[in-house]
Design goal:
Blueprint lengths: L4 E5 L4 E5 L5 E8 L9 H5 L2 E9 L10 H6 L1
Antiparallel strand pairs: 1-2, 2-3, 3-4
Length: about 70
C-alpha cells in the first residue's frame, strides 16, 4: 500500500504526501546539469538530485518507522 501523493511541479519537480501520523514529506527531483562539464544534452536532461524532506511534523518526535513511506517513494 502507498500513500496518496500529488505532483506540485515547479523548478524541483516536487511531489508531496502525508502520512497517517500527519507528517508531510516533499520528494524533490532537482535538475543537476551543473554536476557535469559535459555538453551531452541527453545526460544533462536526465540527471537529477533526489531529496526527501520532512516539510511538516505535527510533533516534536522523530517520525515513526512507517513502511508505507518507503513504498511510496
Amino acid at each position: 500500500m502507498l500513500y496518496k501523493f500529488y505532483f506540485d511541479g515547479g523548478q524541483n519537480n516536487s511531489y508531496f504526501f502525508e502520512t497517517k501520523g500527519e507528517a508531510i514529506y516533499e520528494i524533490i527531483f532537482k535538475p543537476t546539469p551543473y554536476l557535469f562539464e559535459l555538453k551531452n544534452v541527453e545526460i544533462l536532461e536526465n540527471t537529477f538530485e533526489f531529496s526527501i524532506l520532512l516539510k511538516y511534523n505535527p510533533t516534536s518526535k522523530l517520525p515513526s518507522n512507517d513502511k508505507k513511506i518507503g513504498a511510496t517513494m
